[in-house]
Design goal:
Number of strands: 2
Largest sheet: 2 strands, antiparallel
Domain Isopenicillin N synthase-like Fe(2+) 2OG dioxygenase: 1-32
Protein name: Isopenicillin N synthase-like Fe(2+) 2OG dioxygenase domain-containing protein
Organism: Solanum verrucosum
Distance between the termini: 19 Å
Number of helices: 2
Helix content: 10-25%
Strand order of the largest sheet: 1-2
InterPro entries: IPNS-like_FE2OG_OXY (IPR044861), IPNS-like_sf (IPR027443), Plant_2OG-oxidoreductases (IPR050295)
Keywords: Iron, Metal-binding, Oxidoreductase
Shape: extended
Amino acid sequence: MIMSNGIFKSPIHRVAANSEQERISLAVFYFPDYEKEIEPLQGLINSERPQMFRKVKNYPAINFNSFHKGEIAIDTVRISPSQ
């Protein structure tokens, strides 16, 4: 969501379980190098759609720390309209 400046959002995870068949789950996570900065693509920022997220490093750590504080990670890097 950061790189798309809020245009693309993650889908809600849903499971349709079948009690008659075995279920297999697979989780896949992708994170860039922890030292790389993640920010919205410049081509997706303009006067009608200003930058919505600040530039961050090590987003997995932000996600982990936010979870333990009961916060939503993406909200901690969101730029408020007054900034």
